[in-house]
Structures are given as C-alpha cells and as structure tokens.
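Hi, here's the filled form for the chain we discussed.

Project: internal
Contact: R.S.
Residues: 127
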Amino acid sequence: MTPSQPYLLRAIYDWIVDNQMTPYVLVNAENDYAYIPRDYVENGKIVLNVSPVAVNGLELGNDYVAFSARFAGKPMDVSFPITAVLAIYAKENGQGMVFNEPDDTPPPDDTPDDDSKSGKPNLKLVK
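And the returned structure, exactly as it came back:
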C-alpha cells in the first residue's frame, strides 16, 4: 500500500482551513532534500505557516510539499519531502496530527530459517 502520510496531511490541512484556523507544519530541517529558509531553523526543525494567505501555489503532493512565500520580505521557493513533515496543527489551538519520524531500520526478515522446519518452536531468551 502507499504511505498514508500525504493523505492525512491533506485531510488535516483542509480540516484546519475549513475551520478558519491557521495551519502550521513542523518540518525536519535536517532532511537533505528540504529547501527551506535556514535562518529560521531551531534545533533542527522549522515551523512554517502554510495558510492560503501566507503562501502561493501550495502543492501537497504524495512525495513533496512545495510553495512560494516571503521571509523577511524576500521571496523564496520552499519544498521538502512529505517524510520530513513531523506535524501539522492549528496555530490557534494546537489541534492537528503528529507524524512518526521515519524509521530507517530495514523490516524484519520473514523467511523461515532451518530450525523452524522441524515443527518445534524456535524461542530465544531476551534479557
């Protein structure tokens, strides 16, 4: 299945805007593919106002978020992968959704080993 994060991001964004609130996104600024205003990064993260009045051409795609905005009066094209979005929430009341940071560990190997063919349980002591 495709990842659910882009769909949830779009749904929460619409919900916040439909309730006349200001959507903010918390972004992992340490992502190598995040093109963001570095002057506003704190502790490796940045909060961006993505309301319709603050940005132009907002694209909430399946892979990337992209828009144009002004920072200290200077126009800038901003883009970052969906996986860099850590949260989306309403500025006014904090309601929204937090996303798990991506886990870089590979999934477990589900292929059975030779011991499992004997029909006996293969248990290991974990301390």
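Let me know if anything looks off before we file it.
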